[in-house]
Amino acid sequence: MGNRKSLKKDNRLPPVIPKFVNVPPINDFQFLTFQDWFKKRETEQQDWIVVARFWHEEPSNFGTVSVLAKLKTKKVLRKILSNSHWEITMDFATHYSGINFKRDLEDIGEFLTRYYHKIEEVDFMPFTIFRNLHGYKPKTFELLQDFVLYYNAFFVHEREEYQRINDDGEVQTIARVRRGKDNVILEVDTHHLRKYLADKQCYLVRYHDHNRLSKEDIKVHLNKKSKSYRFASPLSFYEVWIASESFSGYKSLSRLMGKDIVAPYPEVMENEEEKFASFMVGQDKQGKIIEATCNEDELSNYFVDTGLPHALTPVFFRPEVLSRYYNEPQRFTVTDSGIICLDLWSLDIDTTDEDLIQVWLADFSKIPYKEQLYWRGFNVLPKGTITQHRWERDFEAKFSDPSNNLMLNFNVAFENIRQTSKSKYNESLFLDLDNKDLHAVSTLHVPLTDEQVEFDQQIQFLAKVTNDSLNVDLLSRLTGLKIDPKSGVKGSLDLLSEFLRQNCKTEDDKQNTMKPFHALQSLRSTGIAHRKGEKFVKTLERYQLANLSNRDRFKKLLADITNSLNILKSALNKQYQ
After folding, report:
1. Within a 10 A sphere around the Cβ of 175, how many other Cβ atoms?
2. 22, 54, 84, 197: least CB-packed within 10 angstroms?
3. CA 204 to mean position of chain CA atoms
4. Range of the domain at 45
5. DSSP per residue over 431-480, as a string?
6. Residue 169, domain member (yes or no)
7. CA dist., res. 53 & res. 229, Å (int)
8. Is the pTM of this model over 0.85?
């Protein structure tokens, strides 16, 4: 604790640390002269820059708007910063602004909006547009549409953010709105702002009009009733007027007027040199791990021997590598043979008999470098070999599906029974899920680990897709029964059981077909939807799942349900005949 003072002067510390150490309280005079605001150095922030605000929180009132300034010379920049006067007004770019806008598009070059204000050698363009909707809607700010379109951004209303999808498929927030009552602040990501300014060859000019009040009479600091102070730097000019004057119960007041500049990057940023990760591809005779780049241009192929491993060297990964992609179904689609990120990139994969994910080494050169680094974290030494269907697909150009892929077998059986019932009854035995539940279908998979949380989630999804989606109306028509606890038909599974009783050869066939559906229902009701306890243990024992790992429990249940779906399909065909 005694070293806190020295921490503030230790340049080895990240800047975010010293700012919290022994921050001295400011007195009323410092408050009125905006010393705390100056210390924030908003234009130098590395993350977010405030480009507009209308914020009243007694005893302070802050107003900021921003414009683009296209300069002919740096001399003009110095002229802009030679005083605190605004060249524009708060409502710049609105139809009632009062500025005599010139609307001749010939002189504005790259500017895409019709509104601009020309003063001597400077073209001023609105970057933020203040919207005062007369109390019908809250005051707000909008960004110049050219900035939004430059990044192909979209506005997410529930988060009040402008977001974009970069070339890697990542969703990035480039601007955000913060609110409080009738107050609003608009912030823009620093990197995206400065890159845009560089490409447009503009500066961002922020105009400020801030006011503060104090209940302390600061006349002693002034030696007179009022005084003004100027604060200037190469990229800012502010003037603070402070007075000892009574106002609404306050004894002193101040006002800051001025402007500051956010400069563009020195040059338009060029694309970074392409990078490639290395992966473990084997071990030598001494046990030393062999790594190889995934850069296809450097790897050997059927025509050139570069001395490095072949482009089609198999690389292996722990199955958990897929977790990230299953967890973001809006961006990623995962199948038994690949991962697809929107329309930006894809990666061919396969699951080996050793339960590892296998990828060809050179295929990594086709996905973003960040993704390569992510996969590298799950890389393992080769174990086993590639699958037969992988060989047939990639080397013999055959259509070949993995016969032992439980998830694929389930999907095929599930789709077959849906199509069969649709063709015979014009509706599916299993109803479509609502849009808000579609992720249960797209992310349903054999758990990648034995973690309880993943097992619970996948049991929930499997139940939602199957048991919860049974078409009660169709089953009622097929069986002649309705759900009625008094008659013993308590729910959709009872209707399904009656349908099978009417269409299966033996009672054993019916019981065996219904067993996995009942197991799924019991697992969810005794241990997923509620606290796990003795009932959950008994459920595992009843359905021969007690001595299995969570992954093997799910695998057994999935295989049994797949078999039941195939029997159900036969029963539907028989009933129709």
Report:
1. 26
2. 22
3. 28
4. 28-142+175-262
5. PPPPGGGTHHHHT----SS--HHHHHHHHHHHHHHTGGGB-HHHHHHHHS
6. no
7. 23
8. no
